[in-house]
Protein: CDP-alcohol phosphatidyltransferase
Amino acid sequence: MPVITPFRRSQRPPDDAPGDPGTPGAPGPAPLAALGARLAHWRTWRTRHRRTAVVVRRVTTGLSAILVLGALLLPNTFVALEPNRFARIPAEAVVAAVLLLCLPRVPRLVAAALFGTALGALTVLNLLDMGFTEYLGRSFNLVLDWGLLDDAQSYVADSMGGAAAAWAAVGAVALTAGLVVLMALAAVRLGELLAAHRERAARGALMAATVWMTCVALGVQTFGVPLATTSASRAAEAQAHRVVDTLRDEAAFAKEAKADRFGATPGAQLVPDLRGKDIVFAFIESYGRSAVEDPVMAPGVGRTLDARTEALAKAGFHARSGWLTSATYGGSSWLGHSTFLSGLWVDNQQRYRTVTAGDHLTLTKAFEKTGDWDTVGIMPGVQKAWPEADWYGLDKVYDASDMGYRGPKFSWSTMPDQYALEAFQRLEHGRRRDRPLMAEVILTSSHQPWAPIPRMVGWDEVGDGSVYDGIEAAGVKASDVITDSARSKEEYGKSIQYSVTSLTQWLERYGTDDTVLVFLGDHQPIARVSGNHASRDVPVSIVAKDPKVLDAIDDWHWTEGLQPAKDAPVWRMSSFRDRFLTAYGSTPHPTGAGD
Structure:
């Protein structure tokens, strides 16, 4: 009979004995053993290089403290990014130090890591706030604005090239991940330092808390700002309130969108005073009040508006102009378009999705509802499916691929405004038709970064757009303008002059006795062009040959010509739809939220 020998402890293979990794149960290199070996190697290195190890440890600690304190004191706007903001005592640092000192080791490590991760995430949100405030005049919305990051990447690709956009995206992801990870590691490092010097750390925390409370009570300031601050907590609280307010607004706006003063008006009772007229609603990208009043841009833009007013008058056209306050600023043009045409205040993406998913009457759809107009959209900026066309009431939409353009892109803009208008004339406005035309035209040549800018060519020379090859090649590069505020202002002003000239020359050349043009800006340009704290006002003009068209708006008290006076009436953009429908004979038949 074979003898079975018990497997004694002394016979067990050592932990580092080689084994067959493919055999179940066979011993292999243990991860913990490998980690232990690395730690042993690190301890050996520290023993051999004590001075260097001390320097590394102190530098690491110092950098950790700078990183955490910097994040706690970081503002969320570029304007507030000044040295005095970082010479303050953050209450969050004192509270965190006290909490970490009270915890045993494992909970302390977990709490420090969570605190650092949350602080890293808040830092990312503050940086997003900076960018959104600079470009869109508002803070980042944690619920609604993630989709706009794709638009930002597309903008960089159009302005700086695909490689730059790809590297920018990679850099943004790396920065986000790096900030969160480094902030967590820094917080853990500082927590361990506090625990290693518990008594001194406790005294320091007590002193810091006493100084903080004293500064609050006495209102102590350094360099013009309070020495004691809770800026990080207030930033987190603001983000939380923004999320809650957004969720509440969604339900309230859905109810508001169901109420419509003209929602049940029969087609026969909509805009009867404009029967037989060709109506064009044109939006000029970023055409804001700053273009007309800023000392840098206003002289050139003003001369263009005066010259074009005079040229139109010679052709028999006259204009009235006022101001509208846009629902958006610096970008998100579709919010301005939908606000103007729906009569609702559409100032965020959720509202846009809500209103375009419903049946609220748009100004353009009112013309379709009459059955007396053909309705078209000229959309050179649209480069993908655009289901909103049905909501706007457009029978046909010409996007960037439908207009026969064979010339170069001008940065973000797919084609020059003059070409888009000439294509509109060729494809729709100049055709023989049984019914008048209502068109929505969105011009894009004045879209940032305003480089290169097209220039006017003879209307008979436009052709398929090849004429613009040399113009684009000789133009200013976007990279030379995009980071230069003064240069951006100059080029922006030139782009507005070009767009206004293109549109009014088209009207002068192709307009008839029955053409009515309504044109306006969708929003102000970004803050570094329009200026900090600039209004959201944009110019709006109505141009026609038939005096009855302008007589109908006499009580609006708008300025004669294309340039509105400084004291001309200022209305919310959402009020225009109802005023326009009323002025031209529409009869209200309201629908309500309960209908």
